[in-house]
Design brief:
By secondary structure, the chain is of the alpha+beta class. It folds into two domains: 19-62; 113-281, Jelly Rolls, CATH 2.60.120.260. The protein contains six helices and 15 strands. The chain has helices spanning 24-31, 36-43, 47-52, 56-60, 67-75, 84-92, and strands spanning 95-97, 102-107, 112-118, 123-124, 133-137, 145-149, 155-163, 168-178, 180-184, 187-191, 203-209, 214-219, 228-238, 245-253, 263-272. The strands form three sheets. Strands 1, 2, 3, 5, 6, 8, 13 and 15 form an eight-stranded antiparallel β-sheet that branches. β1 and β2 form a beta hairpin. The longest helix has 9 residues, at 67-75. The chain is elongated. The model has no long low-confidence stretch (mean pLDDT 90). Pfam families: F-box (PF00646), PP2 (PF14299).
Length: 282
């Protein structure tokens, strides 16, 4: 008689562990060390990664240290009632406040807070006299308009701001264009016909805070003709992000021996000092 085959079935081979087997808490710990764009890319890989990417401690580490103040100031909401990811996403979109004269956003790759103050939120000597200044609509400004200087003897622009800034060092810049932005044959151009007076004396930039931080610098505008430039007014340091800091900043050229003109004033930018190299991207 032939041998009888056994009817028993061999046990299935155990599959190797995969990414789906990682504990959600471990994935979240890894995400906490990543930049926000990388977290977003990994979150779509599977359900475990998606859930881990929602953990509050992951996104709290990406938010600026003053995020609770920003939620109150910009949204009028209680931070504890919002998820940290929701706060991050909402702050990454530019938010206007103070009658639309100021704008705040987070730089996405770092989560650092940046601010722009429109020329409309500054004190400009003679701004309402059309002989000296005009308002120029342009797509080259995030506020869709700039102040164009025709000609003055006395240039003076200043601003004041009290705000709870993130801890660390921040830099203040004036965004300016020597020339008048135009379009020729559908392409961006710059009219330099009325540029004058900037090679005689330098423009003075000044920054000060109520806690006795001061900085003064001087610059000749004709070094950057025809393109937008970021002119450094100074740096200031914040130790406590929960305590408002009052800063004053200005630029002036008040030598009345000559006129000057052909200048566009867009805004004042305040950003973490470590991001100053990224200004041209904004």
């Amino acid at each position: 008689m032939g041998a009888r085959l056994s009817g028993s079935v061999a046990p299935p081979l155990k599959s190797r562990p995969g990414l789906d087997d990682l504990p959600e808490s471990c994935i979240a710990l890894i995400f906490a060390q990543m930049d926000p764009p990388d977290i977003g890319r990994f979150a779509v890989m599977n359900r475990a990664f998606c859930l881990a990417s929602l953990a509050d401690f992951v996104w709290e580490s990406k938010l600026p240290s003053n995020y609770k103040f920003l939620v109150h100031k910009l949204f009028g909401e209680i931070p504890e009632r919002l998820s940290k990811k929701d706060i991050y996403v909402r702050l990454c979109r530019p938010v206007r406040f103070d009658a639309g004269t100021k704008e705040i956003w987070l730089e996405k790759s770092s989560g650092k807070m940046c601010m722009a103050i429109s020329w409309k939120g500054l004190r400009i000597t003679g701004i309402d006299d059309r002989r000296y200044w005009s308002h120029l609509p342009t797509e080259e400004s995030r506020f869709h308009a700039v102040a164009y200087l025709h000609q003055v003897w006395w240039l003076e622009v200043s601003g004041e701001l009290e705000f709870s800034f993130p801890a660390g060092s921040s830099s203040v810049f004036f965004r300016l264009l020597v020339g008048k932005p135009t379009k020729r044959h559908g392409h961006r151009a710059c009219d330099l016909d009325h540029v004058h007076g900037w090679d005689t004396k330098p423009v003075r930039f000044r920054l000060s805070t109520v806690n006795n931080q001061h900085e003064i610098s001087h610059c000749y505008f004709l070094m950057e003709v025809g393109k937008w430039g970021y002119y450094h007014a100074g740096d200031f340091t914040v130790d406590d992000p929960n305590k408002p800091v009052k800063i004053n900043f200005s630029m002036n050229q008040i030598d009345c021996t000559h006129t000057k003109g052909g200048l566009c004033l867009d805004s004042v930018i305040i950003c973490p000092s470590e991001l100053r190299e990224k200004l041209v991207e904004w």
